[in-house]
Design a protein that fits this description.
The structure holds 2 protein chains of 2 kinds. Chain A is mainly alpha-helical. Chain A has 3 helices and 2 strands; from the N terminus they run αααββ. In chain A, strand 1 and strand 2 form a beta hairpin. By secondary structure, chain B is an alpha/beta fold. Chain B has a single domain, classed as Amidase signature (AS) enzymes, CATH 3.90.1300.10. In chain B, strand 2, helix 4 and strand 3 form a beta-alpha-beta unit. The radius of gyration of chain B is 21 Å and the shape is globular. Chain B starts with 8 loop residues before the first helix and ends in a 14-residue tail after the last helix. Classes of the chains: A mainly alpha, B alpha/beta. At the A-B interface, helix 1 and helix 2 of A face helix 9, helix 10, helix 11 and helix 12 of B.
Chain lengths: 95, 495
């Protein structure tokens, strides 16, 4: 079943992806068919099953609390699409 | 010795050490092949010939002194998902079209430390999302193989399609790939080469652009498993900068080639006999069983009861993680920016312009399954089914050492035969996804040609950190299959 335009628009808003009106319809259809297909997971009995979060192969580890990296401001800023001095710039967010 | 394009990685290494060939000669021959053939194949996004020549010169100096690491002077290609210091890294996306990382990924740093020569950055599906290398913002990659009876452009598989095509055509001696649900194994099968997806945690993810962090794993792609073993030994290892990296010694994988399979128990998962599987894939699988049995292995039927849920589970888990990982592309700190009067407007416009259709679709589905009211029904349930899928494998490995399956349900298809329904496209990964979900290692080796002359692969799946047994069993298949076919488009074929 296709997802309706309102649902697609709401999801796109959450994901901060601007959509053209014609994209809303195509995406609604494609997403609907994928959602219908994953519905089959409802058949599986998952009572008492723990969710798998990663493979659990790596042991959590502590590290010494000290600076291991840094002092590379210019490198960090080197790919900024727009900047002023040592700052990233964005449209005004506070009046 | 025949031509320079007949070298495998291992034989080139030996010839370099014996000073029968120089690293500069070897590198120049590959740069020349790229110039001749890659206009058609489009396997490279960024070529770095000058840097490669410099590195080759340094390799020759090291080799002359009897020094140099295990890959000294070996020309490789790097999937454009690995950050390379000072060399543009795009993930085949417009949104990273001008991104130049100021640091090196751990995997590529390991290869450089061992003396590898990088010829450039290889094409892929955008953010590694695809199974045919048709979603790249830098255009599709063409498979160097052709069907016997037609000139149609075939896909190289995906997402590591550029890596696969470049290796198969002889443009590089080996390449890095990444595999989230089959992105090394399926393109390896489609192009008649070998590829290994190691155990999750074997290769560091530091500096590899993330798609689905709990699944992404780097691995080698090369003409055969000996070459893959040499590459994997260099790429693998503990890295404190990746919290999921596992601190366990890296074995000398190349030595595993000689182990043989006598007494090895090979499981055949009965659920992999899927409905509608082409007869020639089924026949190849039977042939693989015969080869391993003849080499001394025992074939045992096993059951992985949750196999059919692998793909839908994957598409929830992987897309949820992708929607979170790709939130960083916001047009503020790096990447393409499209200006707008408000901050949200800037995000929406930048992401609308920067991402392709498949990536948008996947982010939106991932966002949907994580959103309020749907999280438990989709995401949490998928994580629980994932536990069951992993348990299937762990249980099977109580009675067998490796599993044998086909790598993909078909050979390479033509670019214009791409299914329009996204679910049909996802079915390409039906045999590769479950091992990714479980985190266990798996590989693909070329095993034969289909009726139309296009290569087919067999997959072996192993126990956690037992890549050596996989390599041993895979090598037994290589020896029996004696796959020495070459694609139509190859560096060694003069035009």
């Amino acid at each position: 079943m296709s997802l309706d335009a309102k649902t697609v628009t709401r999801i796109a808003r959450l994901a901060r992806i601007g959509l053209q009106p014609e994209e809303v319809e195509t995406l609604g259809k494609d997403m609907g068919s994928i959602i219908d297909w994953v519905e089959q997971l409802k058949e599986v009995d998952v009572t008492g099953v723990d969710p798998m979060i990663g493979t659990g192969l790596a042991k959590p580890r502590l590290r010494e609390d000290r600076v291991t990296d840094g002092n590379c401001r210019d490198k960090v800023l080197s790919n900024a699409p727009e900047r002023e001095g040592p700052f990233y710039t964005v449209p005004k967010v506070v009046e | 010795m025949s031509g320079i394009h007949d070298f495998t990685l291992a034989s080139a290494r030996d010839a370099l050490k014996a000073r029968k060939i120089s690293a500069v000669e070897l590198t120049n021959a590959h740069i020349d092949a790229i110039e001749r053939l890659d206009g058609q194949l489009n396997s490279f996004i960024t070529r770095t010939p000058d840097q490669a020549r410099e590195a080759a010169k340094a390799s020759d100096e090291a080799l002359a002194k009897g020094e140099g690491g295990s890959l000294c002077g070996i020309p490789l290609g790097i999937k454009d998902l690995f950050c390379t210091n000072g060399v543009r890294t795009t993930a085949a996306s417009k949104i990273l079209g001008n991104f130049v990382p100021p640091y090196e990924s751990t995997v590529t740093a390991n290869l450089l430390k061992d003396g590898a020569v990088f010829l450039g950055k290889l094409n892929l599906d955008e953010f590694a999302m695809g199974s045919a290398n048709l979603t790249s913002a830098f255009g599709p990659v063409e498979n160097p193989w052709k069907r016997k009876d037609s000139d149609a452009k075939l896909v190289p598989g995906g997402s590591s399609g550029g890596s696969a095509a470049a290796v198969a055509a002889g443009l590089v001696l080996g390449a890095t790939g990444t595999d989230t649900g089959g992105s090394i194994r399926q393109p390896a099968a489609f192009t008649g080469i070998a590829g290994i997806k190691p155990t999750y945690g074997r290769c560091s993810r530091f500096g590899t652009i993330a798609f689905a962090s709990s699944l992404d794993q780097a691995g080698p792609m090369a003409r055969n498993l000996q070459d893959c073993a040499i590459l994997l030994e260099s790429m693998a290892g503990f890295d404190p900068r990746d919290s999921t990296s596992v601190d366990t010694p890296v074995p000398h994988y190349e030595a595993a080639l000689k182990r043989g399979v006598k007494g090895l128990r090979v499981g055949i998962p009965k659920e992999y006999h899927v409905e509608g599987m082409p007869a020639e894939i089924e026949a190849l699988w039977q042939q693989g069983m015969t080869w391993l049995r003849d080499a001394g292995a025992e074939i045992v039927e096993v059951s992985l009861p949750h196999t059919k849920y692998g793909l839908p589970t994957y598409y929830i888990a992987a897309l949820a993680e992708a929607s979170s990982n790709l939130a960083r592309y916001d047009g503020v700190r790096f990447g393409e920016r499209v200006s707008a009067p408000t901050l949200d407007g800037l995000y929406e416009a930048s992401r609308a312009a920067g991402f392709g259709d498949e990536v948008k679709r996947r982010i939106l589905i991932g966002t949907h399954v994580l959103s309020s009211g749907y999280y438990d029904a989709y995401y949490l349930r998928a994580q629980k089914v994932r536990t069951l899928i992993q348990q299937d494998f762990l249980k099977a490995f109580e009675s067998v050492d490796v599993l044998l399956t086909p790598t993909a349900p078909s050979g390479a298809f033509a670019q214009d035969e791409k299914p329009s329904d996204p679910v049909q496209m996802y079915l390409n990964d039906v045999f590769t996804v479950p091992a990714s979900m479980a985190g266990v290692p798996a590989l693909s080796v070329p095993a034969g040609l289909d009726a139309r002359g296009v290569p087919l692969g067999l997959q072996l799946i192993g126990k956690f950190f037992d890549e050596e047994t996989l390599i041993a069993a895979g090598h037994a298949i290589e020896q029996a299959a004696a796959f020495h076919h070459r694609p139509t488009i190859h560096a060694g074929v003069s035009a």
